[in-house]
Every structure is written in C-alpha cells, then in structure tokens.
C-alpha cells in the first residue's frame, strides 16, 4: 500500500473526508455494498478493514443480504454422455444466475449450504467448505477415510444463531461385526460432529439405532441450528416421526407426525415422505407411489407444516395435484413456489399462492487447508475431455458466425457502392428512384455482436446460449438470402433500364436519319 507521502493530494483528501464520518455511518454504507466490493474495501485502510472484518458486522450484513436459493445439479450421465455438477442461484425475483460457480468441481455433491457457504462432498478423502463470494475453499478431512458405502446425503451443514458456530454433521453407519472397515448402510447409532475452527471430529451417540435409509430416501434439513430428519416409527399412523439434533446443546428430540389417516387410492402403492424447510419451518411432503412404477406418484402431493414445535401441532399447508410424469419429491421450495422436475429433464415452478400455473425454467439439470481453488480443479480427468471439446466447438461456431456476419455486411456495402455508381447512367427519374430505394435494402440489419463471456456459463445459460446461436444462425441465413435476392433484383432492373435506353437511342437515331432524308428530297 502506498505511503501517505506518495499518495496524490486528491486521494488523501478523499480518504480524509470519508474517514472523518462517524464510524456508525460508514458501517451503514458498507451494509449496502455487495460482498465482492467489501472485499476490495478491506485493503483501503486499517479502519475499513477493522469494520468489515468485525464478526458483528458480518452477521448484520448476512441478515440484510438478499436470500437466494441454490439449485444444485449433481454429475450425471445422459444418453451415455457425462454432464458435470453445476449450480444455479435463484434470486428473490426468480431470476436464475448465468455463470458457473467456480468452487464447484465437476464431480462434487452438495451436502448443505448456509450463509453463502457450501459444503461439497468429493470423491477424495476430504470435504470442501467453499465460500461463494471469495472463492476460497477449506479442505477438511472426512471423519473416516475410505469408508465403504459412504454417501453425500449422510452429511449436513448448519449454523446456530446463538452460538454463531458452523457445524458439519455425519451419520455414521454402524460397524459390521467382524470387519474393521465396513459399516452398515441401513442403521446408524453415532452422529459425528465437526465445528469449523476445531481440530477434530467428535462422536455423539444417538438415543437408539436409527435408519440410514430414511435419511437417504427422505433427506435432512437444517432449521435455526437444528438438524431434522425422518425416522421409522411403526406404531404411528404415518409409520414415521421427526428426529431433531440441536447443534448448540448437541441433544436429540422426537416430534410426532400428524395423527390423521391418509385416504389413499385403492389402486395406489405405498406412501412416500420427504422432509423440507419452508419459510423457516419443518414441513413434511407426502404422496402415494404408483404400485407398478414406484418412481411415479399418483393422487395429490400434500405438504404439512409444523405450526407449533412445543405442542407438536401440524396443519396441511398445500394440497397439489400431482402429474404422473414428475419425478418423485419436491425438489425445492422458494418464496411461495415449488420446483418440480419432469421426466423431460426440465424443471417447472409451481405457484403455491393464488391461481395455479406452471412456469418453465430453462433447465435440462482433522487439519484444514484454506486456499483458492484451481479453476481447472477436477476438469483434468479424461472423462471430461469430450465435454470440454463440445464447449470449445460452440465457441468456434460463435466466432465463425461473427466473422461471417462481418463479411456479409462488407459484401453488401461493396455491392451498394457499385450499384450507386451505376445510377447516374439511368436517365429515367422514376426508375432511378425506384432502384435507389431497393439499394438501401441490401445492407443487412444484424443484431449487435456482444462480447463472449470469459467465465464458463452454468447449465441453464449454456442451453440458452445454444438456442441463441441456433436462432442467430437461422436469422443470419434468412437475412443474407433476402440481401442476395435484392441484389439480383437490382441488377436485373439496371440491365433492363440500360437495354431500354439503348433501344430508345437506336430508334431515335433511325427517326432522325429518316427526317434528314425527307428534307433532302424536298429541297431537290
């Protein structure tokens, strides 16, 4: 940083004016700035660095920050072609983000997100805690190395508002008798807990052996510093209950589900359940499965909300008619809309208030080391070569299209200049004016060429970009076809006008010769 003596006088005066303001006012200004700008401000002076890095300021900034939903797409294979993991941010206006998130590797899985932080499950021996805003990652050793049957759904991430601590939890399968490495994939009796900033994981025993299958099939959520998931309860009407784990006290509690009996369809299959968070409350979504096709649902999708945790009182919040071509389970609920995935690989948002309607979203899909992730991290694997080549080919197509547009415009301009040079040879004013108007139609009116993005687009923006490329190619083809036809028409009009002028000149010359001959005869 430059010393006070080497700084320009204007810069010193400006800093003096700003720092002369009350600290409370400076903080209120900073609260309105995005994180990316705040990070640059920390290097301006010691006073600003102290304000922005203060934990209380960070908490206040998080509270005032706009709430975005993270729509995560795990790595999958479609028609034999691998598609990398990706994520889309949806803001309060339901506008999806454009660029890919660089901290997400192509083979990562999302364990949880909180206050702009992500916990990503990798195929290596570490978990990745990533910061959306700064791009920094904390690589954390998994609690058990090379654990067979481990799954990203067995990890959860949350923040407790009272202790201000971030914690990662892991449901550890019970060990198999006679094996030192294998663990049971159906039951667990220990939750492993890691607090960010600590040195190691800690084991917390559960009140009883619980079902891992319930976690894998129904999910787990973190609400106000409490991890919530479904457990088996065969004596209850729904044969399930909610188990909670308080991240502060590290204690367990059970919540009974509604006592109501479902009116299932006579020809329907077993009922499925999912736990979700809506508006900061525990919600249970349930629907009946199709007996012949268990991945399809029949009837309605009910969403029940826990109104009062102390009294364990539930109410039916939504009752949605379910289409059979939807993939089971609500994918995401955000600001009074629910996102459901259909089997055509598109996602649709369903309005939960007012009139029901569908809106299509353009989607197909112990020691810690802090460092910035490499932009190519995970992409060097051979299986992603074809994906990279495909993106490169699309960029080449855009480049070729822009070059073709430049050449097409230049050709049309040269033709226009040539035709305008021929206009003075046409004597008929009406024809010359008509041709002049057509010459003005030769030059194509093409959309402005926007610079190509330097960052990789996410899957939604990539699909939109491909659609834009196809539409622009088609538009360019039709415009240039019309320009060529206009050029041919102008050339034909010019040739016709010239021929008519020649014919008229020859006829006038004959008449003049005949008149001279008749005049000579008269003199004779």
TrEMBL record:
Residues 501-524 are annotated as: Disordered. InterPro entries: F-box-assoc_dom_typ3, F-box-assoc_interact_dom, F-box-like_dom_sf, F-box_dom, SCF_F-box_component. PROSITE patterns: FBOX. It holds the Pfam family F-box-like. Residues 501-516 have a biased composition (Polar residues). Residues 15-62 form the F-box domain. It comes from the Eukaryota. Gene3D superfamilies: 1.20.1280.50. PANTHER family: BNACNNG10540D PROTEIN, F-BOX PROTEIN CPR30-LIKE. This is F-box domain-containing protein. The lineage of its organism: Eukaryota, Viridiplantae, Streptophyta, Embryophyta, Tracheophyta.
């Amino acid at each position: 940083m430059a010393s006070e003596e080497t700084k320009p006088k204007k810069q010193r005066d400006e800093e003096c004016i700003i720092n002369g303001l009350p600290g409370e006012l400076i903080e209120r200004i900073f609260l309105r700035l995005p994180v990316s700008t705040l990070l640059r401000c920390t290097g301006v002076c010691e006073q600003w660095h102290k304000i922005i890095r203060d934990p209380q300021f960070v908490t206040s900034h998080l509270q005032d920050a706009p709430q975005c939903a993270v729509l995560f797409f795990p790595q999958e294979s479609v028609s034999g072609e691998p598609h990398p993991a990706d994520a889309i941010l949806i803001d309060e206006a339901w506008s999806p983000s454009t660029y890919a998130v660089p901290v997400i590797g192509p083979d990562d899985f999302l364990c949880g997100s909180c206050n702009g932080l992500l916990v990503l499950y990798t195929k290596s021996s570490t978990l990745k805690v990533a910061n959306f805003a700064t791009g920094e990652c904390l690589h954390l050793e998994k609690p058990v190395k090379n654990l067979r049957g481990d799954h990203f759904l067995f990890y959860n991430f949350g923040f407790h508002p009272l202790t201000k601590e971030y914690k990662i939890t892991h449901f550890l399968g019970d060990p198999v008798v006679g094996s030192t490495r294998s663990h049971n994939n159906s039951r667990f009796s220990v939750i492993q807990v890691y607090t960010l900033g600590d040195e190691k994981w800690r084991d917390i025993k559960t009140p009883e052996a619980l079902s891992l299958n319930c976690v894998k099939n129904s999910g787990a959520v973190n609400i106000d510093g409490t991890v919530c998931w479904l457990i088996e309860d065969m004596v209850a009407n729904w044969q399930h209950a909610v188990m909670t784990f308080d991240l502060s006290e590290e204690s367990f509690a059970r919540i009974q589900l509604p006592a109501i009996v479902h009116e299932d369809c006579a020809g329907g299959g077993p009922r499925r359940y999912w736990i979700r968070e809506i508006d900061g409350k525990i919600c249970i979504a349930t629907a009946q499965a199709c007996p012949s096709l268990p991945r399809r649902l029949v009837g309605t999708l009910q969403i029940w909300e826990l109104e009062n945790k102390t009294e364990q009182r539930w109410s039916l919040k939504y009752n949605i008619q379910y289409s059979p071509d939807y993939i089971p389970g609500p994918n995401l609920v955000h600001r009074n809309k629910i996102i459901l995935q259909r089997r055509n690989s598109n996602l649709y948002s369903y309005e939960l208030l007012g009139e029901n309607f569908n809106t299509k979203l353009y989607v197909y899909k112990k020691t810690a080391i802090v460092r910035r992730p490499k932009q190519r991290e995970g992409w060097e694997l051979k299986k992603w070569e074809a994906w990279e080549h495909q993106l490169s080919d699309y960029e080449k197509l855009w480049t070729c299209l822009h070059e073709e547009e430049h050449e097409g415009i230049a050709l049309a301009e040269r033709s226009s200049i040539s035709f305008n040079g021929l206009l003075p040879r046409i004597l008929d004013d009406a024809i010359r004016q008509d041709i002049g108007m057509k010459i003005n139609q030769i030059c194509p009116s093409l959309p402005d060429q926007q610079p190509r993005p330097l960052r990789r687009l996410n899957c939604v923006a990539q699909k939109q970009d491909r659609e834009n490329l196809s539409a622009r190619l088609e538009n360019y083809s039709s415009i240039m076809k019309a320009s060529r036809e206009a050029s041919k028409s102008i050339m034909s009009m010019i040739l016709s006008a010239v021929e008519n002028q020649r014919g008229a000149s020859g006829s006038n010359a004959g008449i003049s010769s005949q008149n001279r001959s008749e005049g000579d005869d008269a003199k004779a």
